[in-house]
Design brief:
homodimer; DNA-binding; about 10% strand; about 150 residues
DNA sequence: GCCAGATCGTTCGTATACGAACGATCACCG
DNA sequence: CGGTGATCGTTCGTATACGAACGATCTGGC
């Protein structure tokens, strides 16, 4: 069937599909904007959002295995491996052996890491505020509820 | 103020900050789940979501410059470069010179690309449906409205 | 006590993502 | 017409992201 005929019949799905109408597109765009804001606010600390997430969890739990850290922050174990290695290279975290499991690697924060986290913590609200700036309180709550259901 | 004093007052921001309460975390999780669904549905087509997005835009506009394609799909020009190169390697798109601008590279789809897009198009609704499965119609509309405001 | 299957972390390969620096070209202004 | 600043696409470096295969270790069942 010729394209023109398909168009006349309006039966080619590709002709009515609009990228701008897709959930994935919105989610990506919103996340992308959030990331840009995060990066902007944290530039001089040289801290990515995933590194920050890892430090937050380590501060909260004091020490966790690498796999557990990945689970808590939503990172693949291969990804966590790299993130943690970069934190270690900057002495923000350290490795400890797990006395109960030789396979496991316990990650804990160093004082340097705690200090950097304190700095980051003082600006993280700016990231949230800027990210949510375009929407009101009721919408923020809706967004939270909906995204939590979805994930 | 000393850390100990802050702690006594319960004022260390790091102690009350919960990763699970952050917008960025929800957005990332939702997007991550969406991506997993996309990948699962499209595995045998060997098509990533960004490659799909590029093909969708090319189908719609027939031919666009690489930079414009990036703008339309929300990709960095360095990123587009790679995505398009991989599509070209599989003969899904082709390059054309721009008669009006020697710097520009026009991208257009090949019949192979169109065929693959047709295949992908037949399952894309499954991706959307599975992504939005946890939420109802009203919530879907809310989500759309809110995310569009945010981006 | 042993072994089969699960789990821990690594490495490799591939695909985004994006800032920065670069060469080529373009557009516009004086 | 000539030059200066903007734009196009590339390349490099770095950081996620994730599947798959791997060795080491652990665990449960027998």
């Amino acid at each position: 069937m010729k394209p023109e005929l398909r168009k006349l019949q309006g039966s080619d799905p590709a002709d009515s599909y609009r990228l701008e109408d897709q959930v994935g597109y919105w989610l990506r765009r919103a996340y992308q904007r959030h990331m840009a804001i995060f990066t902007g606010v944290m530039t001089d600390l040289d801290l990515t959002s995933m590194q920050f997430a890892a430090l937050v969890k380590l501060h909260e739990l004091r020490a966790v295995s690498q796999t557990e850290l990945g689970r808590l922050t939503g990172m693949d174990r291969a990804t966590v491996s790299g993130v943690v290695a970069r934190l270690k290279r900057r002495d923000l975290v350290l490795y400890k052996p797990d006395p109960l499991d030789k396979r496991s690697r316990i990650i804990a924060m160093t004082p340097t890491g705690e200090a950097l986290l304190t700095d980051a913590m003082q600006r993280i609200s700016r990231v949230t505020e800027q990210t949510l700036e375009p929407i009101g309180a009721a919408e923020r709550e809706s967004l939270r509820a909906i995204l939590q259901k979805m994930a």
